[in-house]
Automatic annotation (TrEMBL):
Record's keyword annotation contains DNA-binding: yes
One GO process term, biological-process aspect: regulation of DNA-templated transcription
Keywords on record: DNA-binding, Transcription, Transcription regulation
GO MF terms held by the record: DNA binding
Protein's name according to its UniProt entry: LuxR family transcriptional regulator
InterPro entries reported for this sequence: Sig_transdc_resp-reg_C-effctor, TF_LuxR_autoind-bd_dom, TF_LuxR_autoind-bd_dom_sf, Tscrpt_reg_LuxR_C, WH-like_DNA-bd_sf
HTH luxR-type domain span: 171-236
Length: 240
C-alpha cells in the first residue's frame, strides 16, 4: 500500500471498519506496504498493568514473542512506555539506542528479542480516543520513518485508535452468545491449557476443542487465542 493513498482515504476506511479483524487486516497491509514487519495497537498501561498481553488491542507480533516479552517482565521500566506517558509526540526508535540506560540484563534481553523478530527499528505514535483514553500504535521493522511519513502515520493512527475504541465500547454493550463448551474451552485456554490437555479434561476430541476455540475467536472479532482470552477477560465473559 502506498502511504499517500492510505493517508487520503483513511477517514472513509476507518469509518467502515465493523470488527477488530477488519482493522487487523488493514494494519497488516499498511505495515507490509511500508516495508515493515510488525504493528501493535495498545492502550497505554497504568501501574496496574505490567504485561504487553494485557494492554494490546490488536497486533501481529508473534504469540511466542509476546509470551517471552511478558515472562521476562520487559514492560516494567520500559523506556518506550515512560516516554509515551510523558509526551504525546511520535518518535522513531532504535532498539539498542532507546534501551541504553536499562540494566544490562534486560537491555541485552530486549535487544536480542526485537532483533530476532526483525523489529530493531520503527516508530511509536501516542494517540487518544474521543473520550480521552490514551493509547499508542507502533510499526516496527528495519528502518525509521521520515518526518513526513511520521505525520501521515500519526493521522492514520489517531483515526484507527478512535475507531477501535468505538468498536470495543460497542462490544461491551452487545451480548455475544457462547455455548457452554465454548466457554469451557475458553476458560481452560485462559488458564494456560493446550488443546490436547483441554480435550482430555472435557472428554472431547482435539479437533472439537480447536473448533470451539476458533468459534470464540471469530465471535470476539479476534485473530488469535491470546487476543480472544484478553478480550473475554476485558468484557467479563470469563474470570480466571
Amino acid at each position: 500500500m502506498e502511504l499517500e493513498a492510505q493517508f487520503n482515504r483513511i477517514e472513509e476506511a476507518a469509518a467502515g471498519f465493523n470488527t477488530h479483524y477488519e482493522v487487523f487486516k488493514y494494519m497488516k497491509g499498511l505495515t507490509q506496504g511500508l516495508g515493515m514487519t510488525a504493528f501493535l495497537i495498545m492502550t497505554l498501561p497504568t501501574v496496574d498493568f505490567v504485561e504487553i498481553g494485557a494492554t494490546k488491542i490488536i497486533t501481529n507480533w508473534p504469540a511466542e514473542m509476546v509470551d517471552y516479552y511478558d515472562s521476562h517482565n520487559l514492560m516494567v521500566d520500559s523506556p518506550v512506555i515512560r516516554r509515551m506517558l510523558r509526551s504525546t509526540s511520535p518518535f522513531n526508535y532504535d532498539v539498542e539506542a532507546i534501551n541504553t540506560d536499562r540494566g544490562e540484563g534486560k537491555k541485552s534481553t530486549v535487544i536480542d528479542l526485537f532483533r530476532r523478530y526483525g523489529m530493531e527499528k520503527g516508530a511509536y505514535f501516542p494517540v487518544h480516543d474521543a473520550a480521552g483514553g490514551r493509547g499508542a500504535m507502533s510499526i516496527s521493522g528495519s528502518r525509521n520513518f521520515t518526518m513526513l511519513e511520521m505525520a501521515k502515520i500519526l493521522f492514520i493512527a489517531t483515526l484507527i485508535y478512535d475507531r477501535l475504541s468505538q468498536l470495543t465500547l460497542n462490544e461491551k454493550h452487545k451480548p455475544i452468545a457462547f455455548t457452554s463448551s465454548e466457554l469451557d474451552c475458553l476458560r481452560l485456554t485462559a488458564g494456560g491449557r493446550k488443546s490436547s490437555e483441554i480435550a482430555k479434561l472435557l472428554d472431547l476430541s482435539e479437533n472439537a476443542v480447536n473448533n470451539h476455540i476458533g468459534s470464540v475467536i471469530k465471535k470476539l472479532g479476534c485473530t488469535t487465542r491470546t487476543q480472544a482470552v484478553v478480550s473475554a477477560l476485558r468484557l467479563n465473559i470469563i474470570r480466571v
